[in-house]
Amino acid sequence: MKKIATIFPDVWILEPKIFQDSRGFFYESYSKKKMESIGLFYDFIQDNHSKSVKNTVRGLHFQLSPGQVKLVRCTKGEIWDLIVDIRPESKTFKKWMGINLTETNFKQILIPVGFAHGFAVLSEWAEVEYKVTNYYDPKLERGIQWDDPAFGIDWKVHKPILSERDLSNPSLQTFLQQNK
């Protein structure tokens, strides 16, 4: 497994070793032993799976403390995966990055606590799977306005399809003021 640095010190792109031939492919999508061999020590305890149609935008989501570290991959189709640093004390506060995750590039992104996460579906439909380090707790689930001008994110979709929840998320500034 290859660990690739990003603009954020604790966010990593992971590329597994792929074995391909005329029959198809095989790879280990997760190995605790291999993760630890590249310096990533996490106890993933739950897997999540979503399916979405083209132009769907999901996010920007995160969890209050203790939060969830996420290991995200796209198993069908293509997504533009986005993360935003929402840690006010961080040198990279309000910065964002995006990465294309596809069923053919096999890339995964490791997202630590303190980042909001979202994605836009670029293919006709996409399936996303991700591991998390804590169980889902609806009382800890939060979101930030997907198109908050504080970030200036390019979502790569022109007519986004959003849930009611994502349409009603507060701006980052409002969230921070409400949670002082």
TrEMBL record:
CDD domains: cupin_RmlC (cd00438)
Catalysed reaction equations from the record: dTDP-4-dehydro-6-deoxy-alpha-D-glucose = dTDP-4-dehydro-beta-L-rhamnose
Domain of life: Archaea
EC number: 5.1.3.13
Listed pathway(s): Carbohydrate biosynthesis; dTDP-L-rhamnose biosynthesis
InterPro entries, per the entry: RmlC-like, RmlC-like_jellyroll, RmlC_Cupin_sf
Keywords, comma-separated and alphabetical: Isomerase
GO molecular function terms listed in the Swiss-Prot or TrEMBL record: dTDP-4-dehydrorhamnose 3,5-epimerase activity
Gene3D superfamilies, per database record: Jelly Rolls
Top enzyme class: isomerase
Function: Catalyzes the epimerization of the C3' and C5'positions of dTDP-6-deoxy-D-xylo-4-hexulose, forming dTDP-6-deoxy-L-lyxo-4-hexulose.
Similarity field: Belongs to the dTDP-4-dehydrorhamnose 3,5-epimerase family.
Quaternary structure and partners: Homodimer.
Record-given protein name: dTDP-4-dehydrorhamnose 3,5-epimerase
Source lineage: Archaea, Promethearchaeati, Promethearchaeota, Promethearchaeia, Promethearchaeales
